[in-house]
Each structure stands twice: as C-alpha cells, then as structure tokens.
Amino acid sequence: MRAPVDTIVAPLFPTKGPWVNVVGQQASIIQRGRPMLVEFWDFCRPNSLRTLPYVKAWHERYAADGLRVIGVHCPGFEASADEQAVREAVARLEIDYPVLIDSDLQVWQDYGNEGWPARYLFDGRARLFDYHYGEGGYVESELAIQHLLGIEREPLAPVRAEDAPEAMLHTQSADVEGAYSGPYEAGGVWAVLQGSGTVLVNGGPQAGGSAVEVTHPGAYELIEHPRHTAAVLELKLGEGVRCLATCFTPGLA
Fold first, then answer.
1. What is the mean pLDDT of residues 66-82?
2. CA–CA separation, 73 vs 83, rounded Å?
C-alpha cells in the first residue's frame, strides 16, 4: 500500500546491534542515499519463508539499479530468539543481503510493526513510499520498487498459484500452539519444530503419509495440497523433537 503521506521517515538502525552480511560500520549508514526495502521476518514462521523467494529475487534483480534490501529478524518463537540460530538460518536460506538480528524487538517497536512478514519501502531520502503486511501484494511491491528506481520490467512470475494477483483463496484453519492432530482446512500444513529426530505425518510413508527429518530449528512444510482442502492431520513426534506450533497456509478456492 502506498504511504498516506511522504513525511514518515525510516527509524535509524542501531549501530551496535548484531548484523549478518555486514562488514565494518556499514550498519550505521546503510539506510541512506538510495531506495531501501526493509523486511521484518522470522525463520520459524511459514509465511516469512513463503515471502522470502520474492525478497531474495528483488535483491538480486534490483541491487545493481540502486535498491538496498535489509532484513530485520524478529523472533516469534523461542527457537528463533538465539543469535547463532539466526546466523545459521541466514546461511541455510542463502540470504545475501544484510540482516539485522532484532532479538529484543527494539527495531520492531521503533517501526510500530504489527506482524510477520512486513515490508516497508523507503525512497532515497528514507521517506516511506509503500508498505505491506503479510503474504501477497508482490506485484504491487515490485512495481513500487521500479517506480523509485525509474525503470520498467516485467514483474516476477508468481512462485505459487495462490500468489497470482487474480487468485481466489479460501480462509485456512487457524494456527495452533504445539503439535496438532485433527481436522483442518487449508492449502498446506507446516510445523515449527526444534530438536533432532523424525516426525511422522499421517502415519508415515507406509500409510501414505510422509516422514520429516528435523535437523535444525525452523518451519517445516508437512503437506502441500493443490487447492484448499478439508482433511485430517495426524502428527507423531519422534523422541528428541519438539513442536512449537502447527500452521496452515491458504489454498486456491
């Protein structure tokens, strides 16, 4: 969404906060001089991971034209509050742009942020130009980036069918704290897991389900449906695995 006024200025980033992919004192000046996209995310949240391919692609596509992309990692789970876990997630997810580790939510509060993911696009004078909460709105965000850079290109193709601007979606079941087994309606099922071991989904491979190997803390995709589906979930956690939440993602109507 376009900012209602052009006088909302980006808060300064803390100069001494932990950064990933930043060398020396760049953190103190990184938001000045050219358009900047700030993405609030959490590696344990499925909607953050579903948005990530677009943010990474915009960095790769527009960095040479002057866009700066900054990730602000804010934990929503205890598993994503550890600094080393964030650094490992940034490497595992192959994120090349700078990421500020905001474990105490200082920057979150400075922005008055309201959830994950959230992106804020600022012009070259650090004034808010466009913003978006949650998944979706990818074409609008990319066109706003192009407007600030003064270029025109065909926007990225949707990563998933439900990301297309014209897609009609059904509302999915609400996320559940901890491990959940029971009926649901969604386009996909994820679990926020930590520890090490195996999670059996719907009885495991021998029963027509699947087995998920947990090797690091994070959000794991358990089931992907082609469309919005009503089904029943059965989770069985192996020894050494803890489930912090069961999450559901939207599907095509």
1. 96
2. 10
